[in-house]
Design goal:
Length: about 300
């Protein structure tokens, strides 16, 4: 199998490497010529065997829309486009119509795994027709973690379902990170009693009900900077938490925990930030390579 991959940033570059390691030929295109395999998007499309499959892995919003529009001009009937970025699920409906009018197929894929995905594999949530998903299944199987398919991949539903599932996933992620951050601050507040905060988090990694990959990343962050003294408590949000709340309001689903975690991020940008938000910032940096502000 030979596919095109547009966007060779932190995740896209690692995805290209993992796919190649799994025996899938990849031609990558990026605006940065230093990492790109071809000079233009047109060159990428022209060099792929038909029916062509192109995975788009660029920032959500106008950039993704622009790439999709350009691909609609370069590809032809029977080809397939996969949007693997963090797009809002409502954009999938517009993308599918734009491409569908020219007979080009479309899949939306929510992707989790961050900068660790090359080694560990990526959690995949996919939306689209069963026929289209079947065409791309070898790609998904190469990207997902080792083990049973259903533990790292789901065909969540029709077009938009993949990005919707990823949106909810990220909302949950916000709340879990906030809880770890608040726990960290309380432990630090009782330094007269708790003498080893990093060790306490590390001890939770086996046998406890709060163990998780995020907990492992929290331990990594604390082992490198036990007091989180090197970073600010300023925490950005990528947008998916906001979209989760919009959907919660639209469907009258109470989300007090997730909403509180998002508002806490807003508060963090109004001052120096608390130890809790330092921990959240450190976690975002650990799993996604998201930038942090230095203290």
């Amino acid at each position: 199998m030979h596919i095109g991959l547009v966007g060779l940033g932190k995740m896209g570059n690692n995805m290209r490497a993992r796919l190649r390691d799994k025996g899938i030929e990849v031609t990558g295109y990026d605006a940065n010529p230093a990492v790109s395999d071809v000079a233009t998007l047109a060159d990428l499309a022209a060099g792929l065997p038909g029916p062509r499959i192109v995975w788009v892995m660029v920032p959500a919003g106008d950039i993704t829309a622009g790439v999709i529009e350009e691909l609609s001009k370069e590809l032809s009937e029977g080809d397939l486009v996969i949007d693997g970025g963090n797009s809002k699920f409502t954009s999938d409906f517009a993308n599918e119509k734009l491409l569908g009018d020219k007979g080009i197929k479309y899949i939306d894929a929510g992707v989790s795994g961050g900068v660790w995905g090359k080694e560990n594999g990526y959690g995949l949530m996919v939306g689209g027709s069963a026929e289209n998903v079947a065409l791309a299944q070898p790609i998904f199987d190469a990207l997902r973690p080792e083990g049973p398919r259903e533990e790292g991949f789901v065909h969540a539903g029709d077009t938009g379902a993949g990005h919707y599932a990823k949106m909810v996933h990220n909302g949950i992620e916000y709340a879990i990170m906030q809880a770890y951050g608040e726990g960290y601050e309380l432990l630090e507040a009782r330094s007269d009693l708790i003498k080893d905060v990093p060790g306490t988090f590390k001890a939770w990694q086996r046998g406890t009900v709060v163990r998780s990959w995020l907990l492992e990343l929290m331990v990594l962050a604390l082992e490198s900077d036990p007091k989180l003294a090197e970073i600010s408590g300023y925490v950005e949000d990528s947008g998916e938490g906001r979209w989760t709340l919009e959907e919660a309001i639209n469907h009258a689903v109470p989300m007090p925990t997730i909403s509180a975690s998002i508002f806490a991020r807003f508060v963090s940008r109004q001052g120096e930030g608390s130890p809790t938000m330092k921990a959240v910032a450190a976690l975002r940096n650990q799993f996604g390579g998201h930038a942090v502000k230095k203290a």
